[in-house]
Amino acid sequence: MAVYALVDCNNFYVSCERVFNPALEGKPVAVLSNNDGCAVARSAESKAIGVPMGEPAFKLRHLVEQHGLILQSSNYALYGDMSERVMSVLATFAPGAEVYSIDECFLDLDGLSVPDLTEWCQHIRATVKRWTGIPVSVGLGGTKTLAKLANRLAKTSPRANGVLDLASHPGWVEPALKRTPVRDVWGIGRNYAGHCGIHGILTAYDLTRAEDGWVRKTMGAVGLRTVMELRGIPVHTLDTEPSDKQTTCCSRSFAESVTGYEHVHDAVLTFASRAAEKIRADGLVAGALQVFAYTDRFRRDQPQVSLNAMVRLAPPTDATPRLIAAAVSGLRSAWRDGYAYKKAGVILIDLVNPANIPRDLFSPAPETGARSRALMAAVDGLNGRLGKGAVGYGLIPKDAPWQMRCGNRSPNYTTAWSDLPVAKA
To answer: pLDDT digits over 291-348, tens only?
Structure first.
């Protein structure tokens, strides 16, 4: 019998902040998105005082004054490193593991000789907490969808104490389905939940009783697979070997709107450089590049415009100079004066393994490609040792108006030597 466990980090971004700043324990904390925009993670205490997910920071100021809400700028370098540490620990507990997101991991427990899965999962929780400082919850089920559902209940039920095993207790599945609103089922979005509500399908249990033909007609084959999993029929297997990326994007909303071409140009140059580093780390090359910029859609009092340009790359490349040149060329061709731009970005498309690209008359000579690869390897190596951005293309001022706002960001405790925590006597 298939048994899956979903291990989910509790309030992950907040938990990462608390590992290195214990003074945040027991206090209402919210982590903000890029540019200190809106709440993307909330502690249990901040939820209790009414902080909604996605609430803009300026609407939370009254809670700062009234309830001592602490607003933290996001620190994705820290969160990414802490995620790797948690996933490394989890991988030691099962023969198969799928990292589903930065704070979630599926474990395949099929055939694992464990007398009491609940006790064993409590051991997982204790080990992750002891080795990384991050609290986690565990849900178990005969399918990945049921494991996801069990995890949600494990977080919210005091009796579960962080672990709910629906795989070993089939009699618990029906009550769990009845306690889960259909909108909270993994894979059921807001639109599908609305369609279900119109037809009287309010819980996950109601969804399991729906006719297959109606489910397929309303939610397609994907929705039907979700229903099959809720019925205990495994459809989704563990994805332990993720496929290569098809695209990668580097973009940002600016702290301040900018009108000058030079500011957007500098931002696009920076984004193209970072996107190039990403695909080199994955061993891929890009066959096309898309550059975009647009104005603040929420400022109805200002004229609106959206710039977009696609540039083909022949042959495909991962070289920063070529990608920068393509991005700047696309921006220049699409540029329009007289607008206040709020966001820009670069998307690398048609990513492939360079070994799979056939040679043609227009391919660079082998020695030319070798020189380019050596140069990029040297740049990446220096940035790896000296810190991101130590070596780059173009001199970008640190006070550029498009730079990200992060007024209350914690140090990069685990990824920068200069930010190592210091223990005081």
So the answer is: 999 998 878 889 999 999 999 998 889 999 999 999 999 999 999 999 999 999 999 9
Read off the tokens for 191: 């639109």
Torsion sign (Cα): 321, 326, 331, 332: positive
What's the domain count of the chain? 3
Q: Same domain, yes or no, for 121 and 190?
A: yes
- Rounded CA-CA distance 211/216 in Å is 9
Cis peptide before 315 (omega within 30 of 0): yes
Spatial separation of the C-alpha atoms in residues 308 and 304, rounded to whole Å: 14
As a residue count, the chain comes to 425
How far apart are alpha carbons 371 and 194 in whole angstroms? 57
Q: Which domain holds residue 210?
A: 4-9+79-230
- Of 181, 198, 230, the one marking the end of a domain is 230
* Residue where one domain finishes, among candidates 200, 230, 260: 230
**pTM recorded for the entire structure:** 0.76
Give the HSE-up count for residue 294: Cα atoms under 13 Å, Cβ half-sphere: 11
Tell me, yes or no, whether 403 lies in a domain: no
DSSP assignment letter at 182: G
Choose among 309, 320, 308, 317: nearest CA to 270: 320
* Predicted local confidence at residue 241, as pLDDT: 63
Separation in Å, CA 187 to CA 80, 167, 190, 383: 25, 20, 10, 39
CA 48 to chain centroid: 25
DSSP state of 289: E
Between 74 and 389, the more confident residue is: 74
* Same domain membership, residue 216 and residue 269: no
Same domain? 21 vs 87: no
How far is Cα 236 from Cα 199, in angstroms, rounded to an integer? 27
- Positive or negative CA dihedral for 209, 212, 218, 220? positive
Per-residue pLDDT tens over the stretch 110-119: 878 888 999 9
251 C-beta neighbours (distance < 10 Å), count: 18
Q: Which residues contact 123 (CB under 8 A, 6 or more apart)?
A: none
Q: What is the C-alpha separation between 118 and 139, in angstroms, rounded?
A: 9
